[in-house]
Design brief:
The protein is an alpha/beta fold. Helices cover 42% and strands 13% of the residues. It starts with a helix and ends with a helix.
Length: 460
Amino acid sequence: MFRFLRLLAFVFCLLPAFVIFLYHYFACDRIAVYYGWKKEDDAILGGERMWLSRHYLDVYGSRTHPMSEDKKKPVVIFLTGGAWIIGYRMWGCLLARALVPFGILVIIPDYRNFPKVNIKGMVEDVDMSIQFVLDHVEQYGGDRNRVVLVGQSAGAHIGGVVVAKKVLDWIQQQQESFQRGERSYEEDDCRHLKSTYSPQHLCGFITTSSPHNLVTMRSVFHRHGLSASVQKSIFGGSGGIDDDNDLNDDTAKSAAAATTANDDDIDVFEAWSPYHLVKKCEMEYMSLIGEANASVNNKYNNESIDQLKDIFPKLCVIHGTADKTVPVEEAIEFLSLLSNLQIPAQSRIYPAWSHTDPILEKPMLGNHLYHRDIYELVCLWTGGSRSNAVSDDDNDVVGCSSEDSEHKSENAEVIGIVHDSAKAAMEEDLNLQPFDETHSMLRPICPMSLVEIARVCNPF
């Protein structure tokens, strides 16, 4: 009850900003598009009326700064948070408001929440929405070859699961193709997800305030009101209403076994933990190398296989040191894992930022550091011929990748940030407007005094 009262006080203090927030959501350059499965002349899909469906995404900026045919916009897919229970696509409105004026197409998909479905249904929804964007984004002025995935909190967790499972699918496809004597990424044989895109179709993935390791986060979740039974229902596959008949055998077995022993509980959480899924990617990759070396068809050897770091999209981990909902140690440990596996990842640790600062309080005060970092990463990762020459190791980038850095303290804070000369070339390649924090859409929308009071009341 006390936490709910704090939430009400938090919303009340930020009410002036939320009024502008709501007005912009309904008045801005935004269209809602259905991305779910359609049946011809049938408004009822899977027992759900289409207009009540959570399978919609918001497309921001399709009518802003029209581009020529050869200058389509880079695309940001943003996955909102909400503790897997209250997520909604509207929560990303401020991010779209900050990026669209500078020429980026922002797409924010909705996905079903618990208890409607468990984590498996959420992952399937997000995966389906990414496939839809890659298939249809050019209809809205976006470039399907310049797509960056961004997630915050629970949305970042789901995005991390999707990316890791796509990498696992790619590795398993290569294992099967070696047995057949050919290398490919075939569309019909995906093991974990139904989509047909490969992980390399995403130029990058920015994970923000994400719980990377669900095993270590269980006690933290419990302190924030998610009981052990609710956690197992969300992540163990036993709580979704629509998903009970939809679970794969492995998840169903894990959910059943979760009631018997603590070790089995750990298996349940590891199955949907980006930290453990990345470790599994490394194990499967080493198995693939072994299969390549042992293959009777010597046409392909381990030198012909992409390195693990090249199978993943480019990665960036962002976190605030004052985050009480998901401690910053989650980011540091995940970066350490990536470093140990020699998977380059950029990082950005924001001193004294809370869990909701990147998406709420800071933008409301006119602080758009988070949005600027996303903008610069989009430039870095999706730039054309000139900007492609700029890598994490080039002189045009300040800082270094996580494989060259130590991330052992809460002061760790280095990311490849682009120098002005390189950024100008990238913006020209992408036909983007320079990021300008004096733009009218980036001005403060809430008095600092109210934001400071809201910080005290913040239940997250």
